[in-house]
Write a structure and sequence with these properties.
Helix content is about 35%, strand content about 20%. The chain has about 700 residues and is of the alpha/beta class. The protein folds into 3 domains: about 5-70 and about 355-550, Luciferase, domain 3; about 110-285, Rossmann fold (3-Layer(aba) Sandwich); about 555-690, GMP Synthetase, Chain A, domain 3, CATH 3.30.300. Strands 8-7-9-10-11 form a 5-stranded parallel β-sheet. Helix 2 (about 85-95) crosses helix 10 and helix 3 (about 115-135) packs across helix 8 (about 245-250). The protein starts with 6 loop residues before the first helix and ends in a 5-residue tail after the last helix. The model is unreliable at about 1-45 (pLDDT under 50).
Length: about 700
Amino acid sequence: MAEFCVRVLAKGKPLSRIASARGILGNNYAVTSSQSVRHGSAYFKTIFPVDDQTIMKEGPERIRVIRKNEEQHSPTQQYSDVTTIYEGFQRGKRVSNGGQFLGHRSGPGQPYQWITFSQVEERARLFGSGLVSLGHAPGSETFIGIFSQSRPEWTILDFACICYSMVSVPLYTSLGKDALKHIAKQTNMSVLVCDVLTKAESLLEDAADIPHLKTIVVIDLPREGAEETKRRFDAVGLRLLSYDDVIEVGTSNPCDLVVPKPTDLNTIVYTSGTTGTPKGVPLTQSHHIVNHAYVHSTFDVPSFGSPDDIHISYLPLAHVFERGNMYHGMIQGFQAGFFQGDPLLLLDDLQTLKPTVFFGVPRIFNRIHHQVTLGVANSSPVKRFIFNLAYQQKLKNLQKGIVSNDTIWDKVVFKKIQDIFGGRIRFLFSGAAPISAEVATFYRITVGCPFFEGYGQTETTSVISHSVDIDMTSGHVGVPGGDMEVKLIDVPDLDYHAKDDQGEICVRGKNVFTGYYKDPEKTKEALDEDGWLHTGDIGRWNKNGTLSVIDRKKQILKLAQGLYVAPEKIENLYTRLPLLMQIYVYGDSMRDFIVGIVVPDPQEIEKVAKSVGVTGSFEELCQNKKVTEEVLKVLQQHGKAEGLQGFEQVQAISLNPEPFSEQNGLLTPTLKSKRTEMQKAFQEQLDELYATTDTTS
């Protein structure tokens, strides 16, 4: 049974359209405040009532905070002896008894090989000593770039910076040369560590523009021709070394540690938006410790991380979400196994590592959900009946607050789904973008474990809020952690008002940054004089005190895979075509592609129709499938020629004969699009486009 669960996922094909078998997916349910969630034989118990999770502080601002009780620990420090990441590492080493920490594998079919906390610490000391001996002084004036895919050396390098109070600057592997130069120059970066030589070589011709950059380290520097390669770098004033070279220098010249204070700068994380120059977010040691405490403040602590837990690291460590996951595991004594670096092999890594916790993004969760439900829909009547019966029986348990993986249905029907993750998952956590209620409910039933949803930003050191363990409702991002404050403010242009519990989400807390690095103008746009971070997201308070993210103030859309698209930029580019009069680009945050409503030019569309052998009135041409497909093809060709990336291209369109106007309520008096009204007007067509479009081929 359920061999369909992994068929396409194993091939690694991208999935988008979720095909659900009728009757197998349930609604949202909440347990009462007196109930606990059972996961197998273990019970989770939240420390406040699930039906009343936040309270509103006195005053006109309608500020909300987490509901607390007298048993709650310090909201900004989980452990009394952990005030920095360095101290957190020491705690992890102690509680794990010096056990294994970082794992990797050399290829498919190979086992994971592990290094211990003590080995990581030793290598970090040697690498840090090597940098100091090479002339890079310890302290927060030295910036170390990490331009590498996630791997054990990434975390070792990061901890080496911590051991010597240097500042790490993580860089996305997809970063363009101009953005890389900007970051290196803005931070006065003196060392850049790359995983492969090609990344280092991309800076050769621009070395003169980055005067502070002195040393480049390549983790996997090819031995063949290494001396000639080093001479090429030396010719432009750059010292090229391998990772092992630096370790060797540190071994011969050990240096005393210079451990950081809580207020010391730990890292500068650059935001990953799609428009404009990347902005640097400085985060201190304390920011990360507070972030760790905020996560724990909504959980019964022993249930949320121990040395017996195993985490798979497949998200980029350059992203603050995965960085936070790694620090969390470091403090708790987790084991962290890295994926092989190939998304097509993630399934193999999961089934080999057998993690107990999985921090993921909606795109991964949606893929698996898509495959299972599609497989059920296409299976025999007997298999559909058994799956539906099992699903409904466990749904009844879910209504009672029971999340379990030890029923007969788990053994007979759902084991294959649980085995996708390795068969040992204790909880799942989804972040980086919203996930649908349908999908969250699916995992609580089929995998049989708590499923958490989180919300955060780089500027908040990752966490703003997340759902709690006994809350069975979905479609929200839970409650703020620790002593973080959240308020909603009016956005009259989009018809959102705080008095209606809707508006722009503003947050204030000890994990919020103090301003963009060397960018006071952008800082003023994000932080007001009272310390509130204006997130640009539109939120809604729900009756049970949870927060939902329902819109984006600046209309920068975040798709299910975590990528950002700027619809107005795309619209402006497409409307350069004579074929188009107007276009409305829409992206559902729970899907991984965008769609559009197109108002074509009446004369130009006749030419397109003629090219595919179709005639008719303007209205008839707009309804014709062949014409629509040809218009889409023209749009995509134009977008590609203009440099749009694949995820920025519309994958489906509907042709609309009536122009957008002020008269029909779709444009403002200045002829700007009223995006909220457009979504309302075209919601049925948009839903149809998503329902009938398959981007998996």
